[in-house]
């Protein structure tokens, strides 16, 4: 059985992944900003669960969590970077302070967690880093420009990191869920306080996201099952799309991108020096 550390376990994907891993017999460090919000998992699963307070923007708490995992379980085999939140805004409406906070949690928090676990994974020659991305990390639309930017950055990091650490025996996977019935669009959502009338269409999209939050098609428990399946593979995928909506969105983007490449290929190819 593996030793896991999962960030953002109070609700949503993080909680479902933690519960599934524990139910399968793994040992799991379950973390959240407030340890009491995950204490029930310790009550349910006993000493195979370790509940810790972890703010992924706090380097001291990250170091303490990794140390505690080593002391309790002997190390971390699987890191799941799940902590994050949304931010609804037109680009012009976005507030710098809030956007930077968004990147601190969604992107730099994951970066710092990865850097904290890699030394021990390198020493052992094994490990699996799972980054919870999003459909919006593949296809960007309003009002998620800034949230999508954090996930696009996480996608790039995942892709490059996978190449760096593959020779060291470490696996890396991005999980890319579509629309799932979590609290992402409610309790975990922020939005710009600034509104500009010209972006009424963006505001309408915000309202739709909130209106349908409790009626989305995706089952978070099935995401957890998929994560457990992937982490048990000798050759896991670099990316795993989850949901019919993200599958369609990605196929549509690939088709549109291919068409654009073909349309403009003469310009694309005509930029080298003549002898090239």
Automatic annotation (TrEMBL):
This is SDR family NAD(P)-dependent oxidoreductase. Keywords: Oxidoreductase. It holds the Pfam family adh_short. NCBIfam families: PRK06180.1 (NF004824), PRK08263.1 (NF006114). PROSITE patterns: ADH_SHORT. It comes from Mycobacterium helveticum. Belongs to the short-chain dehydrogenases/reductases (SDR) family. PANTHER family: SHORT CHAIN DEHYDROGENASE (PTHR43976), SHORT-CHAIN DEHYDROGENASE_REDUCTASE FAMILY PROTEIN (PTHR43976:SF16). One of its GO terms (molecular function) is oxidoreductase activity. The keyword Transmembrane helix does not apply. The keyword NADP does not apply.
């Amino acid at each position: 059985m593996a030793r896991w550390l999962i960030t953002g376990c109070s609700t949503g994907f993080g909680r479902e992944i933690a519960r599934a891993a524990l139910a399968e017999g793994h040992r799991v460090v379950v973390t959240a900003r407030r340890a009491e919000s995950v204490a029930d998992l310790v009550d349910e699963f006993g000493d195979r669960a370790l509940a810790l307070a972890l703010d992924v923007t706090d380097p001291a708490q990250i170091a303490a969590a990794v140390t505690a995992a080593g002391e309790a379980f002997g190390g971390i085999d699987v890191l799941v970077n799940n902590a994050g939140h949304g931010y609804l805004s037109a680009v012009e409406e976005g507030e710098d302070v809030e956007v930077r906070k968004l990147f601190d949690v969604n992107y730099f928090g994951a970066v710092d967690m990865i850097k904290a676990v890699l030394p021990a994974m390198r020493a052992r020659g094994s490990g699996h880093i799972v980054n919870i991305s999003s459909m919006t990390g593949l296809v960007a639309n309003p009002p998620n420009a800034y949230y999508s930017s954090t996930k696009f950055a996480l996608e790039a990091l995942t892709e490059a990191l996978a190449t760096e650490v593959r020779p060291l025996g470490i696996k890396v996977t991005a999980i890319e869920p579509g629309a799932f019935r979590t609290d992402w669009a409610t309790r975990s959502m922020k939005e710009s306080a600034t509104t500009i009338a010209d972006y009424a269409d963006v505001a309408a999209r915000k309202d739709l996201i909130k209106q349908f939050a409790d009626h989305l098609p995706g089952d978070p428990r099935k995401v957890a099952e998929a994560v457990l399946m992937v982490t048990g593979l000798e050759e896991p995928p670099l990316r795993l799309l989850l949901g019919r909506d993200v599958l369609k969105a990605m196929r549509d983007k690939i088709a549109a991108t291919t068409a654009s490449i073909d349309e403009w290929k003469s310009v694309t190819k005509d930029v080298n020096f003549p002898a090239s």
